[in-house]
Amino acid sequence: MTCLRLSAVERAQLAMMLEVTAFPKPGNVDRCHDYPETRLEHFLASTIFARPALEEAELGKGRLGEIIKHAVRDTNCHAGGNTHFGAFILLIPLVYGKTIEGAMAAIANTESSDAVAFYKAFAMTAVKMNATDDLDVNDPHTLTLIRERDMNLLDIMQHSAANDMVAREWVTGFPLSRRGADLLKENGPGRDSIVRTFLTLLAMEPDTFIAKKHGMEVARETMMAARDVLDGKRSIEDLDEECIRRNINPGSIADITIAAIFLALGEGWSWDS
Amino acid sequence: MTCLRLSAVERAQLAMMLEVTAFPKPGNVDRCHDYPETRLEHFLASTIFARPALEEAELGKGRLGEIIKHAVRDTNCHAGGNTHFGAFILLIPLVYGKTIEGAMAAIANTESSDAVAFYKAFAMTAVKMNATDDLDVNDPHTLTLIRERDMNLLDIMQHSAANDMVAREWVTGFPLSRRGADLLKENGPGRDSIVRTFLTLLAMEPDTFIAKKHGMEVARETMMAARDVLDGKRSIEDLDEECIRRNINPGSIADITIAAIFLALGEGWSWDS
Hints:
Two copies of one chain form a homodimer. Chain A is mainly alpha-helical. Chain A is built from 16 helices and no strands. Chains A, B: GO terms for molecular function: ATP binding; triphosphoribosyl-dephospho-CoA synthase activity.
């Protein structure tokens, strides 16, 4: 069997596919569990439709904000709502820059036009960001503020970083994505490694997607419950069941896991055990 | 939500993804069931890796045999074995020709070079074709015969058509793929429609992939069992369980279902219910 090295685009798509199909993942869509509005097939369709924007990123030309907007626009073609917005925030700069260092350089080079494009992408999704601050995505005044203050896309992410672990990766240099990639390589090849890595990340950091929906207390509670699973005090199926029942979705840990898989695939980690 | 019309490439990839994720499908890999050697993730990786060859086909240039060979080569990059060889035999000409009529015209225009390329693709897979005839893929003499007789790719398919319902589609004008597309549109949108269509096709024709592995008697038996499910005499889960236990895989009906989904998506059928 001859196998050329995977391209960055293929690694990104594989990462999206492998993360969503890995199971069991407490509280999230996977092979064995859909939500009424959002199903596995929506995530997989999004993986297919993301191709052109990922190819733009791979060329390393064009503007990061525009490319993210294209990814969101092209993957909005189904009824499943926001599937990969957070994943694109991580994947697009990583594909563009080829490494974390390259991603950070591209991020530093963004301008207010990127911030404007990003907000337009944001408005296409139903994602709630900080509802209480002055950068409200639905307020046209926001775009004026962005231009007046000459905020680039890094400034935008900085603005949300306290409450959004995905945005925080842009500010801090992708440490959680890096950690996840290292965990995958330690945990071995294949699906079980993805599940263990997801759970380990969940046990280390409160998921800010949970915090936004349910408050930080529930996010911490979920983190400690993941630790209990890793310590053998509780089954993963039991935690999955509770998260589903209470609609607790570790969506940001999922996004970080996608970025981790992307990095690990480029460093020799095998998805195919 | 703005949605541009799906391209032929996207329809082909969606078709591959939707077919494999539909469940329950008696005896085949789906969301709830893997085989030890071949898992859902292999089929989904193949869907991603097929993109360049499908894009070649969409351009409508190049040679059908070469494009099929590229599709097989690019999707061989995993340990799951042959996942989509039959699906490519159907999808590549349909994407290339844009319609069944266009596909048949392209098929008629193939030459011995396409047949040679096809046999080289074939040799990359572990698929058994007719072991008893004189066109043995592992026999280098075969390629000499093909050139001497100036057989084109249609001639090759004609040679296998009696025992292979996928090859037969090339000879007879894709009637089963057409029937499947019509069934999908009758059965309504979404996953349940795919399952019902798969079952209906299975109940109408003995699956030649089953026949090659287990003999025509078992293929007919499976066809009649599918009819029992449609008639309410038996549950689909029960048939699925028996097929898994006996390693009965309706692989060619799956390939035809993929082609049917591809056609139906281009005719207004909605996958997203």
